[in-house]
Write a structure and sequence with these properties.
With 408 residues, the protein is α+β, with helices and mostly antiparallel strands. It is built from 18 helices and 8 strands. A hairpin with a 2-residue loop joins strand 1 and strand 2. Helix 10 packs across helix 11, helix 11 crosses helix 16 and helix 16 crosses helix 17.
């Protein structure tokens, strides 16, 4: 039928891709890769749910079988190869929309991903090229509408020098008012205004809006604070130790979530943070906020790129080689990761010294902090296995703290 023929004409490209949304309205999100049946139609890119296999039937039937998970308008979008800081995967594209959303798109085969890049780029350029033509047509229509009898009277009155002053100015004013009230003219002006509007991400990149503390990359935060350990981590650890490390269930007991979120807001928006304030009196608020900080790091304290190496190290059967391998791995990490790790694990070692009172042993703290401090980039597979290994790695570093961090 004609609708189906039109659908085929509009269709630019379709196929299976892996994707993850990493930013929504300028707010960073945790990566969660999934496979989607992806359709590029005109200037619309759609990711469909449950796209693990190519759907059967015609394109019209295929898309009707599935529900759209994400629909992206490509007007004003930007697509580039993803930088290493965004992902350790190869063959990854980064797509930024004008609304501040960001997606990573991946395919194992480079040539297929290149085809997608060319198709999406062409779609973006086609949209950008069509916008001025559309605006030009609207402007032409506005000119035609403005040629009202009153305007023609103004032209005739040019020959009448005696009447030109008052009558001409009055009629031109009326014509100008009609132009401003013309819906097509208003829509054209709004369209131009929206096209010039910068995205939230571009405003951040220019430095007009500063990144927040929670959810900020560790290296970015440390560079901004001109240190190798985030100030909030230092303040929080000092405040916890000041309250006392003999409190039962330290780091295991959950604090009031609403108060923790309130503290998070304070950290993100106020320069002078006072953790001795009475509203943070409950130590579990502080420990909950510290765990939340590490949990919301876009790249965990143990970087994605080193995750498999830490697993290999902990599975090394020879005890001596395991210790050396683990120590060398920690020392190979970026300085902000090393120094923050040293401060945090030193603090946790002091917590363990009071295990008779707080009932927090090495194993207890390893279970709490394992999934928080290190995780695979793709969390969809082997969750149960990873949970065990994560705890074992943290437990090993706690037990071998002196050898890893203090011995030269």
């Amino acid at each position: 039928d004609s609708d189906f023929q039109q659908h085929v004409l509009n269709l630019e490209k379709a196929g299976l891709l892996q994707k993850t949304k990493i930013c929504e309205n300028g707010k960073r999100l945790r990566k969660n890769w999934s496979t989607s049946w992806t359709v590029l139609e005109g200037q619309i890119l759609t990711f469909y749910k449950d796209g693990k296999s190519q759907p059967s039937g015609t394109m019209k039937q295929a898309t009707s079988q599935m529900s759209a998970e994400h629909t992206l308008e490509l007007r004003g979008a930007v697509i580039n190869s993803a930088i290493k800081e965004k992902t350790s995967k190869k063959n990854v594209l980064e797509l930024k929309t004008r609304d501040g959303d960001e997606y990573l798109i991946h395919h194992d085969k480079e040539n297929i991903l290149e085809d997608w890049y060319q198709a999406i780029t062409a779609s973006i350029r086609k949209q950008a090229a069509s916008e001025p033509d559309e605006n030009h047509k609207n402007e032409q229509k506005s000119v035609t509408v403005d040629k009202t009898p009153s305007t023609l009277v103004v032209l005739r009155d040019k020959d009448d020098k005696d009447k030109k002053g008052t009558r001409t100015s009055r009629l031109l004013s009326m014509s100008s008012t009609n132009q401003e009230n013309d819906p097509k003219k208003v829509r054209s002006k709004l369209r131009k205004l929206l096209m010039r509007r910068p995205t939230l991400q571009s405003v951040k990149e220019k430095g007009y809006i500063k990144d927040q503390v929670f959810g900020c990359h560790l290296d970015v935060l440390c560079k901004r604070e001109k240190s190798t350990v985030p100030l909030f981590v230092e303040q929080c650890i000092q405040a916890v130790e000041k309250r006392g490390l003999d409190i039962d269930g330290l780091y295991r007991v959950s604090g009031n979530l609403a108060v923790i979120q309130k503290l998070r807001f304070k950290v993100d928006h106020e320069e002078n943070l006072d953790l001795d304030d009475g509203q943070w009196e409950d130590v579990h608020i502080l420990t909950g906020a510290l765990k939340l900080f590490f949990r919301e790091l876009p790249e965990p304290l143990f970087p994605f790129s080193n995750f498999q190496q830490f697993i290999t190290a902990i599975k090394t059967t020879d005890t001596y080689n395991r210790k050396i391998y683990m120590r060398d791995l920690v020392h190979s990490l970026p300085l902000p990761n090393q120094d923050t790790m040293k401060l945090l694990f030193g603090h946790l070692r002091r917590v363990i010294e009071y295990h008779d009172k707080n009932r927090m042993s090495v194993k207890s703290l390893a279970i709490v902090f394992g999934p928080t401090l290190l995780k695979p980039e793709d969390e969809g597979a082997n969750i149960a296995l990873y949970t065990i290994v994560q705890s074992q790695i943290v437990e090993h570093i706690l037990n071998e703290y002196e050898q890893i961090f203090l011995e030269s």
